[in-house]
Amino acid sequence: MSEWKKICTLEDIPRLGSRVVKSTHGDIAVFRTADDEVFALHDKCPHKGGPLSQGIVAGKIVTCPMHSWKIQFESGEAVAPDVGCAKPFAVKIEGGVVWIDL
Amino acid sequence: MNKLKLVMIGNGMAGCRTLEELLKLAPDLYEITVFGAEPHPNYNRIMLSPVLAGETKFEDIVLNDLAWYRDNGIRLHVGRKVVKIDRKAQKVVADDGTEASYDRLLLATGSAPFILPVPGKDLPGVIGYRDIADTEAMIDAAKHHRYAVVIGAGLLGLEAANGLALRGMDVTVVHLADWIMERQLDRTAADLLQKSLEAKGLKFLLGKQTSELVRGESGRVAAVRFKEGGAIPADLVVMAVGIRPNIELAKSARLHCNRGIVVDDTMQTYDPKIYAVGECVEHRNTTYGLVAPLFEQAKVCANHLAQMGIGRYTGSVTSTKLKVTGIDVFSAGDFMGGEGTEDIVLADAAGGLYKKLVIKDDHLIGAVLYGDTGDGAWYFQLMKDRQSIADIRDHLMFGSHHVGDTGHAGQNKAAAMPDDAEVCGCNGVCKGDIVKAIKTHGLFTLEEVRKHTKASSSCGSCTGLVEQILASTVGGAYQPADTKDKPMCGCTDLSHGAVRQAIKEQKLLSIPAVMQFLQWKTPNGCATCRPALNYYLISTWPKEAEDDPQSRFINERAHANIQRDGTFSVVPRMWGGLTTPAELRAIAEVAEKYRVPTVKMTGGARIDLLGIPKEKLPEVWADLGAAGLVSGHAYGKSIRTVKTCVGAEHCRFGTQLSMSMGVKLEKMLFGMWAPHKVKLAVSGCPRNCAEAGIKDVGVIGVDSGYELYVAGNGGIKTEVAQFFCKVKSDEEVLEYAGAFLQLYREEGYYLERTCHYVARVGLDHVKKIVVEDAARRKELYERLLFSLQDYEDPWANAVATQSKEYIALEAV
Ligand code: SRM
Ligand SMILES: Cc1cc2nc3c(=O)[nH]c(=O)nc-3n(C[C@H](O)[C@H](O)[C@H](O)COP(=O)(O)OP(=O)(O)OC[C@H]3O[C@@H](n4cnc5c(N)ncnc54)[C@H](O)[C@@H]3O)c2cc1C
Ligand code: SF4
Ligand code: FES
């Protein structure tokens, strides 16, 4: 079931940074890339649950602040040799406003 | 577009590594065809020894399986030997008539065991030790026969003998020289090794020359006869007297060969269309018989095949390590010494320990270790880096500074550890896990082991142990990385030093500018290089370069330490460890108001409020700030604390006012970012209650002034601080300590503590600039003060700007 919700404007998320969105699904990390693309992942690292929102963003990857697993935005999968997945959420930007599909 | 055609002859370790490197650089440039004489895909030849010893199986040592060739579009002809190269027509012909034409040809034919030209050398039961077929023949012989003779007590011979003995054969090792492994070991170490191999059941006949292999009734070999007279029974004879590069094919194509196929520094033969790598090659008059140098050749060769045209192979220093489980012997470089060399020797024959270091002109040029090879990798690194050992000569023999001593129960001898012993205390990785990963995934470098097992990837204190395990599993195939020009990370080929120099010389002021100028390979770098770049920028160009919060680790971005549950800890500064009732009251009130779950004294003599949710941080700081409390930077690669004792203010022994000295230092250094964290201490007398002996800068009051110590460390590997100089006044303490720290800030690599920095550049270098050169000391000190002036408390800033970073969003 698709339900699009408004979360913030693009400017509210720093480039190569992120914000946390509180939701009924738990915390969601919303990232903004250098090219102003936006991605969202469940804010829980597949390793030991670290908050991915607090990691360093480069390209379309975030490095978990806890033990440095690298998680890919598009699939939510960890970069090999680590194995695990953080659930991705669909997002879209319309007129500078960021929406998320919960 | 028509692809160029690349043909490779010899499907072994050097050749396939070249293809792997090439595919990384230019995956689509060539249509690749490979001929291999053996009926197998590329396997890990060095693991034949553990296979023979029964520690691994054939299936587990394949490096590139058939799917790998298929996935990379490589046409593979196994079991086909190339018999002709037609350079004019640019094609090769195999023994079954298969032909392939090439634009570029890569020769990687390896070498073959040298077979002594004695009567009986062709008898059944006489073999060399090179490939899977030989190993199978040995395993089979062990099932049906009793006596094995191994001719040649080099690495290969001893590993063969050990394996055959483990498979139940009665093994004698015959050797021409007076001691075993004479090309790798000096006599003392060799004798110790021989003793422990004898204890495992091997027999040795030294100083014996084989004159004949005698045929038995069955037609199989039956005995070995010696020139000196006498004979011993033999149902299996393994010749391990050396290898000869396979050059016949190249020679028949009239390529220039000496001992091996002659190549230049780009791995090109005398025919510019033909390259060669591996054991078949002769480079600068040297041939190699170990994997590590061949891998370096592979990298250079791939670069040229990919038409990038950079990269030179300039030769390698090699080290060896015998792969016999439970025995630890290591040698590297020129260990026999000669004109102009000096030896440092430690010999404890009864204890089974022997170490010999060979030194020339203040440089380590060779090492032989027996019994405890824990420092092998470190010594080898010192040789490779050509680092001067003048400063560390007196403790060189006693070992490295990168073999940590915490977190693994004081273990520092990998060989003595059982498989279930924990090596990496951070990630819970046992020795057996590491050995298994190395064998099954074909790992050769520390980085690869870290990736696959996580061992030594956190605090790094077990790096030395992991290196030892790697070295004893892959033998001489392990080569520590060149620390000098080691790339910062996968995003660039440049080292920390080179990047820093460019930032300074080109006056680069932002991370994008650095990445563009130095042609970074990734658009935004990674979590390894970005924090380093950010530090180099702000320390090189204070007040001019951009400080990028997104390139800082979360702790520095949020000005608090992230905890395992995602909350944060708050440590307000207590200058010199001093506090007041008003401060304590404010802290108590915050703890109650925000229901802080844990309040704790830190090891840095101040109070930690643990378990605060991120969105509450600004409020907590506002309340603390009202009482005058500021950030303690317990989270930063920055000044942490200045620990003090009570000193002459109160103590009956105090000679100097250590509290006030400590407060002055801490106030001066407030807000100082550094390559890593920086801790100081000031004690009022040599009883040293502030533990100044293990600090980055330790100050000890004496009657006539202060003694300064630098480069101590109380963490992973305890390092005692070294005496720096003696000064008279408080002002001098500030100036000398400040200048030292500024030099570290300007020259230290990111994540290098002062102890590592000083070990790299030498204490003499630092003293020359800071202690002996008053003008440079003053300049350094002024640069430090300039970059620290007007620094504002980050907590107060976050409160004032009402930074949104801390607040979570709601979906509506
Ligand atoms: C809070 C404290 C422990 C305590 O409760 O006492 C502490 C906590 C941490 N230390 Fe420490 N260290 C603390 C005193 C020390 C000390 C003792 C001291 O400072 O006198 C040492 C040894 C002295 C030294 O550094 O030379 C120490 C050596 C380390 C090391 C090893 C550093 C090294 O170079 O070997 C690390 C790992 C690192 O920095 O890479 C580390 C890392 C850490 C980190 C930051 C781990 C991390 O990266 O997240 C810990 C944060 C815990 C948290 O959740 O907040 N901590 N740490 C201490 C804070 C002191 C302060 O007031 O600022
Ligand atoms: C038992 C054993 C243990 C070892 N242990 C260690 C160790 O601990 N550490 C270490 O560093 N090194 C060790 N080595 C040495 C290491 O294996 C070699 O240095 C390495 O394999 C050489 O690689 P290469 O590609 O040059 O040759 P190889 O790996 O030998 O590959 C050459 C290939 O070319 C094939 N070939 C030759 N001529 C032709 C032709 N005309 N047409 C088609 N194919 C051809 C050969 O059959 C062979 O498969 C060991 C070697 C052995 C045998
Ligand atoms: S506080 Fe320091 S010693 Fe304690 S667990 Fe954390 S890093 Fe390890
Ligand atoms: S919790 Fe993310 S890497 Fe461990």
The CATH architecture of chain A: 3-layer Sandwich
Q: What structural class should be given to the helix and strand makeup of chain A?
A: mainly beta
Name of the CATH first level of chain A: Mainly Beta
How much is the radius of gyration of chain B in Å? 31 Å
Oligomer: heterodimer
Radius of gyration of chain A from the CA trace?
13 Å
pLDDT averaged residue by residue of chain A: 95
State the major sheet of chain A: 4 strands, antiparallel
How do the strands line up in the largest sheet of chain A?
Answer: 2-3-4-8
| Large-scale geometry of chain B | elongated
Q: Strand sequence of the main sheet of chain B, in spatial order?
A: 3-2-1-7-19
Q: What share of the residues of chain B lie within helices? A: 25-40%
Give the mean pLDDT of chain B: 92
Low-confidence stretches of chain A: none
H/E topology pattern of chain A: EEEEEEEEEE
The helix content of chain A is under 10%
Secondary-structure-derived class of chain B: alpha/beta
List strands and helices in order, with pairings.
The complex is a heterodimer of chains A (102) and B (812).
Chain A: E1 4-9, E2 17-22, E3 28-32, E4 38-42, E5 56-58, E6 61-63, E7 70-72, E8 88-89, E9 91-94, E10 97-101
Antiparallel strand pairs in A: 1-10, 2-3, 3-4, 4-8, 5-6, 6-7, 9-10
Chain B: E1 4-9, H1 13-25, E2 30-36, H2 48-52, H3 66-71, E3 75-78, E4 82-86, E5 91-94, E6 99-101, E7 104-107, E8 111-113, E9 126-128, H4 132-144, E10 147-151, H5 155-166, E11 170-175, H6 187-199, E12 203-206, E13 210-215, E14 221-226, E15 231-233, E16 236-239, E17 243-245, H7 248-252, E18 261-263, E19 274-276, E20 281-283, H8 291-305, E21 319-321, E22 329-333, E23 342-348, E24 353-360, E25 363-370, H9 376-384, H10 393-396, E26 422-424, E27 429-430, H11 431-441, H12 446-453, H13 463-474, H14 496-505, H15 511-517, H16 529-540, H17 554-558, E28 561-562, E29 568-570, H18 581-593, E30 598-601, E31 607-612, H19 617-626, E32 639-644, H20 658-669, E33 678-683, E34 697-702, E35 705-710, E36 722-727, H21 730-747, H22 754-761, H23 763-770, H24 774-788, H25 794-801, E37 809-810
Parallel strand pairs in B: 1-2, 1-7, 2-3, 7-19, 9-16, 10-11, 10-16, 11-12, 18-20, 32-33, 33-34
Antiparallel strand pairs in B: 4-5, 5-6, 8-17, 13-14, 14-15, 21-22, 22-25, 23-24, 24-25, 26-27, 28-29, 29-31, 30-31, 34-35, 35-36
Bound molecules: siroheme (SRM), flavin-adenine dinucleotide, iron/sulfur cluster and FE2/S2 (inorganic) cluster.
Siroheme (SRM) binds at residues 459, 561, 563, 569, 571, 600, 602-604, 606, 608, 634, 640-641, 677, 679, 713-716, 753 of chain B.
